[in-house]
Amino acid sequence: MTETGIAITGGYVVPVEGSPIDGGTVLLDDGRITAVEGPGFAVPDGYRVADATGKWVLPGFIDAHAHVGVHEEAEGWAGNDTNEMTRPVTADVRALDAINPADMGFSDAIMGGVLSVNVNPGSGNPIGGQTVALKCWGRTVEQMLLREPAGLKSALGENPKRVYGERKETPSTRLGVAAVIRGAFVDALNYEAKLKNLSNERPVVERDLKLEALLRVLHGEIPWRQHCHRADDIATAMRIAREFGYRLVIDHGTEAHLLADQIAEAGIPVVIGPLFTSRAKVELRNRSMANPGRLAEAGVEISLTTDHPVVPIHFLVHQATLAVKEGLDRDMALRALTIHPARVIGCADRIGSLETGKDADVVIWSGDPLDVMSRAEVAYSSGREIYRYDYETRSGVFAEP
To answer: Which residues form the domain of 386?
Structure first.
């Protein structure tokens, strides 16, 4: 045991992968979870005890689709680095390179029990760039890093059509957007063929960072993160994925319930949301708090997203609460905040559940997190206490990164 060992005792422990434990103990040591035990467990000598009696203990929540750090809070245009809308295919850009760890959104996330996030580029381009999975606490991006890249962002539907259509440039239609995506994948395959067929006459092929990123998708190293709302756009996303054989994740999925049986059969996860929005455009006319439950009932693996800053990231859990109110199974709602998004971003071996060997990313809640009156009281990231709510000042106190 190290000097930093912490024993969270007496709480209602929800490991997510496994049954809840009333009066359980979670041991944190050297940045990892070293034990998850039931009542009567004797805490080894040397551990600092954190009494969670009467409280709930859960893994940190995860938002698998947000723009924290690249679309900064309270910074206006100067803090918005979400879209590189200078060309339709920007597979070479990386969200990693635009993240400001000092963005207030990261602090908000922690106050809402969200300890990890997947940061996506925006949806202005047919192919927007590489995503990155981060912890929400750290002084530099390197300190926060979980996985990079964690996916490649693409968009169908209104956004790229509008952006380039207003300029009278390709693509200005849905069929044009699909053609741009297909063409990019064909270019990547042609690039790979050249690399495999070097000769004395052609000993070198000039590197192309866009095509290298696309090949990571085609090789199955990272998923294709497909922004799409309408059912017909979702069908297009599935069609192109079948053609090129890559792993597809549907982001937003406003009308995914209309194709739920097909999505479930194909084993495609849906990151659904944001749910706290008006129907501001045609694509959102079928937005409903009941849709997560409809998808889950059909066998689709869902995660919930705020699309921060579209919905403030600390409201992630409240979206789950209202989805439960409209029919989503409550245990499935907690999975949609934890282990499911962990799988989407390729980090389920480290986060998303309370299991021995995983990162010690743990939150102590005042009560059931799906009760809107509950709050995240204490948060640990990699076994270090990073946040504690102060009831006297009614504010959160953060550790220095």
So the answer is: 1-60+352-401
